[in-house]
Amino acid sequence: MHTDDIIKVALDLVGMSELPVDSAVYVHGENINNILYGIDIGVAELLYAKEQGFDCVIAHHPVGLVNHFQVFQRHLDQLISKGVTIETAQKVIDKKMMGFKFGSHARNYDAIPSFARLIRMPFLNIHCPSDELGRRLITESIEKLEEQDENPLLHEVRTHLETSFLEFREAKTKIEVAKGNESDSLGNWIFSHGAFTNGGFPIADCYYQYDVDTVIYIHIAPVELSQILNLNYGQLLITGHLASDSIGINPFLDRLEERGIQITAIGGLIR
Ligand SMILES: [Fe+2]
Ligand SMILES: [Fe+2]
């Protein structure tokens, strides 16, 4: 396989036609049969892969991009789907994106890709397509639960997700009710994911303002969580970073294996 074929496998799973800006091929390669995959990849993993004779290394999280934060714009469609006006949604998104932009100015974006080029190790990362697949799979799973039980309780949602996905059962983190009570109803909900990173406080609050009872994130920063906890409304469910990322990644690795590619998974992937 060529690195372009690998990209196509990931894109086809979600019907995307081109790679979003948080995903990239840093070093192209061909005749790839043996892949080292990690949610996070650094220079040590690249060097190990070279020494061990891997043909290609794939990361989930972006490692050398400056415009990757623009994928945060994908929060717009999710916010609109819950009735938030375009103007309000865009305002909240823009403010967050400004912070991400200058965060990316601070980073050494070429540290890892330059090393991959130096040792001529084919290397790419696929972020948004996998997260979007995970968003769909987890959303569909909760919708299925609602078909049996119109308004499940938060602990029933957790049990259902754990029953449905090996990744949640195997993870060292557990699905947590971060705000609200286990016995509260799920109510009107959104699984907010697949848009670079979670929306933190402002996007959660935006949902609450538009009558969403439960926001579901895969992770949240402590500062943003404390802001949400200060509100006297809104529920927050946190599903866990590695487990939730793995749910969107595993079907992609399965497709590669079906095509005869050998996958070695490290770096936090639950498989
Ligand atoms: Fe992810
Ligand atoms: Fe992630």
Structure description:
The structure is a single chain. Helix 1 packs parallel to helix 6 and helix 6 packs across helix 7. The chain is globular and about 55 Å long. It folds into two domains: 112 residues, NIF3 (NGG1p interacting factor 3)-like (Udp-n-acetylmuramoylalanyl-d-glutamate--2,6- Diaminopimelate Ligase, Chain: A, domain 1), CATH 3.40.1390; 113 residues, no CATH class. The strands form two sheets. The chain has a five-stranded mixed β-sheet with strand order 1-4-3-2-9, with helices on both faces. Strands 5-8-7-6 form a four-stranded mixed β-sheet, sandwiched between helices. Helices cover 48% and strands 13% of the residues. By secondary structure, the protein is of the alpha/beta class. The mean pLDDT is 97. The chain binds fe (ii) ion (FE2) (2 copies).
Concise structural overview:
This protein has 271 residues and is α/β, with parallel strands linked by helices. It contains eleven helices and nine strands. A five-stranded mixed β-sheet has the order 1-4-3-2-9, sandwiched between helices. The chain has a four-stranded mixed β-sheet with strand order 5-8-7-6, sandwiched between helices.
Instruction: List the ligand species.
Output: fe (ii) ion
- Could you report the average pLDDT, rounded to the nearest whole number? 97
How would you spell out the order of helices and strands? Answer: HEEHEHHHEHHHEEHEHEHE
Q: What's the number of structural domains?
A: 2
Tally of individual helices = 11
Given as residue ranges, the uncertain stretches (5+ residues, pLDDT < 50) are none
Structural class assignment: alpha/beta
Compute the CA-based radius of gyration: 19 Å
Largest sheet: 5 strands, mixed
- How is the largest sheet built, in terms of strand order? 1-4-3-2-9
Query: What fraction, in percent, of the residue positions are helical?
Result: 40-55%
| Strand residues, percent | 5-15%
Measured between the Cα atoms of the first and last residue, the distance is: 22 Å
Taken from the alpha-carbon principal axes, the silhouette is: globular
Number of strands: 9
